[in-house]
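Write out this protein's structure.
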Amino acid sequence: MWDPLLRLLHWIFFVCFVLNYWVLETGEFWHRALGLLALTAVFCRFFWGFYGPANARFSIKALSKQHWVSHFYHVKKRQIDPTTGHNPFGYLLLYLVIIFFTVLAVTGLLLEEVDYFFGSDLLELIHGTLADSLFVLACIHVTAVFVMQWWGKIALLKPMLTGKRKL
């Protein structure tokens, strides 16, 4: 279902976000290091979105009206196709997460590494607001996984751990 690199990147994003949002102090060495790791994961995920296997690839057509209608039809019938990866909501969330992680890393780098921006209230506000927004997206993601597992009768958590899903 999901290849090892895709799963690894997913859990790298998870660990980087959880530690930087709840555990580590802003600006300290490990906060910055995990921010750079997350940015590296963004670059890897971006590359993998174009050159990886089918379920790892980005798809703009997945956001088309036809895919939204099809998804709602399958959700209404409680018959989610077990061979697919992301639904239109998943793709939308994926794109937002990549953008948010990228801007978080850039604003963090500017705040810490560029003297001109050190202590900038505006940049700190953007950085903090994006972190809070990413937290909201993560909550939506986790909720959607459990709701779709229950309502859509489709395994989502186990495949993200093992890479396999019963068809």
